[in-house]
Specification:
Blueprint: H1 2-33, H2 38-43, H3 55-61, H4 64-97, H5 103-111, H6 122-131, H7 139-161, H8 166-174, H9 179-187, H10 192-207, H11 211-216, H12 225-228, H13 240-260, H14 262-270
Keywords: Cell membrane, Membrane, Transmembrane, Transmembrane helix, Transport
Pfam families: BPD_transp_1
Membrane topology: Multi-pass membrane protein
């Protein structure tokens, strides 16, 4: 039994190592590419640099445009996360705690957003954003991202809220606590895992969004980092070393945010998986 247990653990670790290598290899190649010349990148993208040239990273860090792109992305992503958490949690709380005519139908309607990819609505979004005068503003990115993120957020929040003890709500009602006060004073403080889980999903999706900012943002002052990356692509040549250095520096905030909330993610995703 001990030998079979050993081989099961060995196979499990081997599979995890293979999967991790597929995830980490592109990230490692991207980080190393920022130290290489374009010729080295073309010859072998995964090899160590012959000469560790830090000038590409230094030039990007010294460029004010890099920090402007980073700040724009951070502002848009933070606004999207805050709005999605507030609206999604409030809507899911209503579906989980309040029974009213048509609640199931309305909840199913909200989940329809999971069936349609973001790109299918890009033209109507552009027309609507232009008509209401939000073109080339941060809200032109924040509001559509929030709208498309609400379906998943409501689904996860509602599943989690339904597993909270009913006795808490009954005791709060006896003490004269209304729905709104119960939501802010009791439900949200108990929902840290699911708040972190949804926040990470929304933040990473917003941070890496390219299509929507490309369509609704025109001025370079409002560009996010995916749009700023295009400055290294010319008509005849692409500065791959600068591009890879730029990508490495800009994905660090998303990685740090994910690692900081990692311990809550599994708890948030499994919080509503088992009843009782």
């Amino acid at each position: 039994m001990s030998r079979s247990h050993f081989w099961r653990n060995f196979a499990r670790v081997a599979v995890l190592c293979v999967v991790a290598s597929f995830v980490l290899a592109p990230m490692l190649a991207t980080a190393l590419g920022g130290f290489k010349s374009n010729a080295e990148i073309r010859m072998n993208a995964f090899a160590l640099p012959q000469d560790w040239d830090v000038s590409f990273y230094g030039a990007i860090l010294a460029d004010p445009a890099f920090w402007r792109y980073l700040g724009n992305s951070l502002l848009i992503s933070t606004g999207t996360v805050a709005l999605t958490l507030l609206v999604g949690a409030a809507a899911a709380y209503v579906f989980a705690q309040i029974r009213f005519f048509g609640s199931r139908m309305l909840f199913s309607y909200m989940l329809l957003g999971l069936m349609f990819p973001f790109a299918t609505a890009i033209l109507p979004l552009f027309i609507k954003v232009r008509d209401i005068g939000l073109l080339d503003t941060y809200w032109a990115v924040i509001l559509p991202q929030t709208a498309f993120g609400l379906s998943l957020a409501i689904l996860l929040f509602r599943t989690f809220f339904e597993q909270l003890p009913k006795e808490l709500f009954e005791a709060a009602r006896i003490d004269g606590c209304g729905y709104v006060r119960f939501f802010f004073r009791i439900t949200l403080p108990l929902s840290t895992p699911i708040l972190a889980t949804v926040g990470v999903f929304v933040f990473v999706q917003s941070w890496n969004n390219f299509l929507l900012p490309l369509v609704v943002l025109n001025s370079r002052e409002a560009f996010t980092w995916p749009l700023g990356m295009m400055q290294f692509r010319g008509e005849y040549v692409t500065e791959w070393n600068r591009t890879l250095a730029f990508v490495t520096l800009t994905i660090l905030p998303a990685i740090v945010f994910f690692l900081a909330a990692q311990k809550y993610i599994v708890a948030g995703l499994t919080g509503g998986a088992v009843k009782g």
